[in-house]
Amino acid sequence: MTDASRTAPSPLPQREPEFLPKMLTVLREGYALRDLRADALAGLTVAIVALPLSMAIAIASGVGPERGLYTTIVGGFLVSLLGGSRYQIGGPAGAFIVLVSACVMAIGLEGLILATFLSGFILLAAGALRLGTYIRFIPYPVTVGFTAGIAVIIFTSQLRDLFGLTLSAPEPAEIVEKVAALWEARGTLTGAALGVALGVIAVIQGVKRWRPGAPGMLIAVALASVLVAGLGLEVETIGSKFGELPRLPPVPGLPVMTGEAVLAALPWAVSFALLGAIESLLSAVVADGMSGARHRSNAELVAQGAANVGSALFGGFCVTGTIARTATNVRAGSRGPVSGMLHALFVLAFMLVAAPLAGFIPLAALAGVLAVVAWNMAEKEEFWHLLRGSRADAAVLVVTFLLVVFRDLTEGIVVGFALGGLVFIARMSEAAEMSGAGAAPVAEQDGDRVVIRLRGPWFFGAAARLGSVLERIADRPREFVVDVTDVPMIDSSGARAFLLLARRMARREGVLIVVGARPAVRKVLDHQGLAAPLVRHLPDLGALDGR
């Protein structure tokens, strides 16, 4: 080996393609039998958690429990096979209960399946357009507010089964009307159902405290099922309400796609896609924080899109990344996406072998499971800390929370995001003023010239202050000089402020002179029409008198 070959630097590792599934990355790194054993154990652990949750979420969403299993099997497998996160677990999520149940009430089960199908293509397009990079910029108070709002809605949706109430009319969707209807039916409370639900909650919390690694939800549901069947308690079960579960998913088929059906399903599809993108990428971020890995957000959106299309073909509903199951996967020692694929196959094996046993599960037991899920997802400490923090963050949090609970989930996210953006603009403007950025007169050489130096990014929030600076200038100079040497970037709103100033000067037979514009800044100014003769450009202030 020559000295040159010994001292030559080793080539840098090539960056993997943005849409490459993590499954291929894991296989490239080398996948041994010990990795398969670890993934099999992790997949089994997640499947044990997913079994009761999938059925509980489906029932709470207004569809049969088998639909939750279809969603877990098909959607969960595709999310892990194609996804950009090494540890993501896909399936039905509690966050979708509100939207799915409202969708079923509005356009029926076939409409739900069509909306899921369409949402998959929206997510595929979002990934292809690389929009996943921007979803992470949703303000933290918005995510906490809508998560807490969803938790409240999930809990209230389970009150009927928790207390074993019998309603004389269909349960209302709106939370105020729902609580009023449940209160009217308080005389039908079933002590056995309430006892089963409280027992399930107690067992789950007890197992979590004394045996954290044990599947508390499955243990609690199994004990409740044995107790209800053994004692012959008058408690509604999956079998009494839905009949026996099928042993296999149905043959795949396209949903009914008439023009009228598509138009009715499209708004729901957009909502499913928006919430699914947010939920899945938040889950991927959580997995990154726990494992030290790094997900590919746009590849993850593509996988979520494919999973929703696949779920709809098999009669399932919305698929997204699930934070609790993903965290369980990481803690169980997963080595990569194989554990997620195996978790889906384990759930399929349950359908093949033990589907009839699901008929013995009390609905009150599943209501207890979802009550625990709602309590855990409420992010109570984060909510309290934000309330005690700045007034702006607290306002965004509270508005998002109230809109989600009393109005609409999508409306809460959109309004919360808009308020968060306004808060950001205000803070950036304040920070610019405190740091000396912005507009400040630095010299007035004579009565016909004013020089102003700008510092820092000149975006729409900062540009609004230029008008107030102009109002403070009493004279009407013939030359208005703006030094932008220390402006690294400018947006169209900032350039527009310069254009208005240039036109104002032209009406007074004066001129605007822009000094020191960087190439990127000059490009934006030129696109806005800030060129000669309306504006003069100079390289620096020293060129003012040497023109």
Protein structure class: alpha/beta
Point out poorly predicted stretches.
Answer: 1-13, 435-443
C-alpha geometry = elongated
The sequence of SSEs as H and E is HHHHEHHHHHHHHHHEHHHHHHEEHEHEHE
Write up this protein.
The protein has 547 residues and is an alpha/beta fold. Among the domains are: 248 residues, no CATH class; 109 residues, 2-Layer Sandwich (Transcription Regulator spoIIAA). It is 64% helix and 7% strand. The chain is built from 23 helices and 7 strands. The protein has a 5-stranded mixed sheet. A two-stranded antiparallel sheet has the order 1-2. A hairpin with a 2-residue loop joins strand 3 and strand 4. The longest helix is centred in the middle third of the chain and has 33 residues. It is elongated and about 100 Å long.
Q: Which characteristics define this entry?
A:
5-stranded mixed sheet, elongated, SLC26A/SulP_fam, disordered N terminus, Transcription Regulator spoIIAA, STAS_dom_sf, 547 residues, transmembrane helix, alpha/beta, membrane
Topology:
Elements: H1 3-7, H2 22-29, H3 33-60, H4 65-82, E1 90-91, H5 97-128, H6 132-135, H7 140-157, H8 159-163, H9 175-184, H10 191-210, H11 216-231, H12 238-242, H13 259-291, H14 297-313, E2 320-321, H15 323-331, H16 338-354, H17 363-377, H18 380-388, H19 391-406, H20 409-434, E3 438-446, E4 449-455, H21 460-471, E5 479-486, H22 492-507, E6 511-515, H23 519-527, E7 535-538
Parallel strand pairs: 4-5, 5-6, 6-7
Antiparallel strand pairs: 1-2, 3-4
